[in-house]
TrEMBL record:
Lineage, highest ranks first: Eukaryota, Metazoa, Ecdysozoa, Arthropoda, Hexapoda
Keywords: Glycoprotein, Glycosidase, Hydrolase, Signal
Entry annotation: catalytic residues: E406 (nucleophile)
Broadest EC class assigned to this enzyme: hydrolase
Catalytic activity, EC: 3.2.1.21
InterPro entries on file: GH, GH_1_N_CS, Glyco_hydro_1, Glyco_hydro_1_AS
Signal peptide residue numbers: 1-20
Protein name: beta-glucosidase
Amino acid sequence: MRGAYGLFFLIVCLLCLSESHEIKSSRQDVRKFPDGFRFGTSTASYQIEGAWDEDGKTPNIWDHMTHNEPCVIKDCSNGDVALDSYHLYKRDVEILRELGVDYYRFSLSWTRIMPNSFPDKINEAGVQYYNNLINELLKYNIEPMITLYHWDLPQKLQELGGWTNPHIVDWFGDYARQAYRLFGDRVKSWMTVNEPYQICNHGYGDVLKAPILNMKGVADYMCAKYVLLAHARAYHIYDEEFRASQGGNVFIAFSAQWYEPESENDIVAAQDCNQFLWGLYVHPIYAENGDYPPVVKQRVAAKSAAQGYPRSRLIEFTPEEIQYVRGTSDFFGLNHYTTYSVYRNESVQGYYEIPSLYDDAEVILYQKTEWSLGETDLVKTVPWGFYNLLKQIREDYNNPPVYIIENGFASQGGLMDDDRVQYIRNYMSAMLDAMQEGSDIRAYSIWSLVDNFEWMKGYTQRFGIYEVDYEAPERTRTARKSARVYKEIMRTRSLDFSFDPSDITMPLDEGH
Ligand SMILES: *[C@@H]1O[C@H](CO)[C@@H](O)[C@H](O)[C@H]1NC(C)=O
């Protein structure tokens, strides 16, 4: 009898530890955002601009890959035209105005500005395009927030090894300096690099992003080191040459999902998973002593030795490099979408390729079917995972100021996106819970303003709060229900679960 009650209590407690959060989040009807909290939306150059070879732009790694191996993309498509934002940027600004955002986060195409990869040649037409976009935003009081690197490396630099060549620290620094010089009089928020995990682990350690190198457990770790050093270089250049006169901020956007233990036996496994999958990039910048997380350093070094490598596959930082990288982000930029359940038992032996990051981490992850909102959703909805992540960031890194740079939901389409509305509301509510407990979160941006080229998924996954008609030459952008809900959240600076957006008019819709 006692044993049965004990077990019952344990189960209830496990449930209440992880899942009680959901109940708390959706119960309250109207929740206010604090004064000064800012809202925006996000996009990236290759996903929307098109005009891949116009006005002097040269190929980047996505142009190269999609032209050489089109069907590595699910629908064999590419970003040659995309939303044609290179020509239609005024329409993008129009929908940003109609939404009422505080800022718009977009990225620069390196080869549009520097077609030779290096600053020996600045392409005036490319500079003009970004000047036009920036000025159009400022005209309507929308802050431009720029990502320097959102995955479209110059193809020539890739041929020199890309993010595994130590010289990229100089190359990226040179590019950043030009961007600050050209646009920094008007742009005050700079993100250096978007999602180092995806750049390195998807692009160098796998076939999930360009340049699909698939050198697991080796190239991904090399990339990690030089992405972090290049980011730090761009930060120091701003600090030393521009901050005094331009007065802006420089930060990095990490991708971090939440990894929840499958059972109480998996708590250490889930901790390790969080360290290998995002701590690897966060720890060197945010931990008090910098450097890679100790568990990652030790595990990779031990496995490398056992596997016959003369040195760790995770190339260590020198003490000078540790100091150079530590503390180089004015905000903790966070891209978050979903949660995974993590376990570790015998079945992890031989589960992954050796070597690989996942074999080093010794974890197996999966998502639960009950986390789905419907049959067509492509992002599992787990708001309490977002809350747990924000709590861990607050506790592990001394409550840094956080910008949520990306959060969003993918579907296969339709204007009545009740599933996306539910996702956004519940994630914002979880964020407000973390803020009530002291998390210093200052901004929230939805990925994405518009449907766009979703990397290896092509145009098959739609993340936009505006739907895009890819058949129409003007790539017609139409507000979804979620756009109306988001507009009301920004107008009232509050989250109201009962608000029905059906009678919100989007005045600028007319005539398009
Ligand atoms: C490992 O754990 C998973 C998830 O709990 C389970 O499905 C699997 O059967 C376990 N494998 C072994 C070998 O114990």
